[in-house]
Amino acid sequence: MNPVLRSALPLLAIAALPSSVSLAANGAASAASMPGGPIATVPGMPSVVDPHNLYSETAGPEHLSAAVKGDLVRVYVPNLRGNSVSVIDPATMKVVDTFKVGRSPQHIVPSWDLRTLWAANNAERGSDGSLTPIDPRTGKPGQAVPVDDPYNLYFTPDGKSAIVVAEARHRLDFRDPRTMALQYQIDAPHCAGINHADFSIDGRAAFFTCEFDGTIAKIDLVNRKVDGYLTLKMPKERLKDRALPPGGPASEICTARKGMPQDIRFSPDGRKIYVADMEADGVHIVDAATFTETGFITTGVAAHGLYPSRDGTRLYIANRGSHKIHGPRNGPGSVSVLDFATDKIIANWKVPGGGSPDMGNVTADGKYLWLSGRYDDVVYRFDTSTGEAQSIPVGQEPHGLTAWPQPGRYSLGHTGNLR
Fold first, then answer.
1. Which one, of 198, 145, 153, lies nearest residue 172 by Cα?
2. Which of 51, 184, 219, 313 stands the most exposed, by the fewest C-beta atoms within 10 Å?
């Protein structure tokens, strides 16, 4: 790419839509007309191809968009303490590049149109947060865009706005996805540690986890407001053995009296929401229509990341291995595999010698699950057929990595929430 164009990447981020995108008809949006029937999406949102499986268009390499043709096959790893991004060639299992970005990069996020990967540098509650664009065709960064507190980054289902998750501000900043100029804001004052999100099947609502309040915030995207909060139930068996330390919970330890929700994902049919809880050591199940908790599944120590399999039948759950925000090396980290049809755990994969599986995503062919090793300065590649893990050293405190390219028509953000 011409260097001038590369430096202008933020202005070109959604200049062309993926050729496979089919836009829904304009008009008043509503929820699904009938269970299993056509989904009436918000105007501008790509249509739902299969009402029974919102992941149907991410099923494998045959669903790669024309927009990602020519992109390098790489794994991009943000090193939180290294202020850098490590680039891995999965064919050789080696780091082939490392470049500096802004302060405290948290996640690598594909843009809605799949043409840019954004490194979200939130500066750890500082005032110099930024978003660094990465060109997936060259693997090289462009000029950073100053943005307030970008802990995470999402996109509205219609592609009209980028949603910068300003965690320390208890706020969602809706920005132009080309320039990142501010459009409007939604305050979520009762959502301390606003963090991960997923979107309803019709695009009307977003659900954000509130890490330090033990709750979920429901955001009405149509009317641009908080539509309510849900307090997650802390399982009794997790309470009895965890007394609060004298004087209250330490800043580095999750409180034992409430959960610490992290990643959040919808079931394939859009009816259930799964919420990983780092303190409860498992996954909450929430009914999307009633916004009530209906169940809990124990997985492993410090459940954190959630990733659907390519065929939409399983959910990979990364258990980070410590209830501390900055945990020890070689902990009891693992990956649990949940069967969507039964809500049962059908496999548990351990990291040889211990580790800290955190954030990542599944390769386009579904054969591997890439996850950062948050406390161990490595990344893991899990074989999804056997659970066997390999590790590669990277920078200091790797966090929300993405394996690219990913199948799908458009990106809702995070480390690769495509549909």
1. 153
2. 184
125-170 per-position pLDDT tens digit: 789 999 999 999 999 999 999 999 999 999 999 999 999 999 999 9
Q: How far apart are CA 339 and CA 407, in angstroms?
A: 22
Q: Are 394 and 378 in contact (CB under 8 A)?
A: yes
Q: What Rg do the C-alpha atoms of the chain give, in angstroms?
A: 20
- Model's pTM, two decimal places? 0.89
Q: Report, in this order, helix, strand and coil percent for the chain, each rounded to 5.
A: 5, 40, 50
- Residue 250 pLDDT more than 80? no
68 touches 58 (CB < 8 A): no
- Domains belonging to the chain, first-starting first, are 3-16+60-404 (2.130.10.10)
Which helix (H) or strand (E) is 4 found in, with range? Answer: helix 3-7
Residue pair 326/396 in contact by the 8 Å Cβ criterion? no
**323 in Cβ contact with 301 (< 8 Å):** yes
Q: Is 229 exposed, middle or buried (0-12, 13-18, 19+ CB in 10 A)?
A: middle
What is the spatial distance between Cα 25 and Cα 33, in angstroms, rounded to a whole number?
Answer: 15
**β-strands 145-146, 140-141: how paired?**
unpaired
| 35 Cβ contact list (under 8 Å, min separation 6) | none
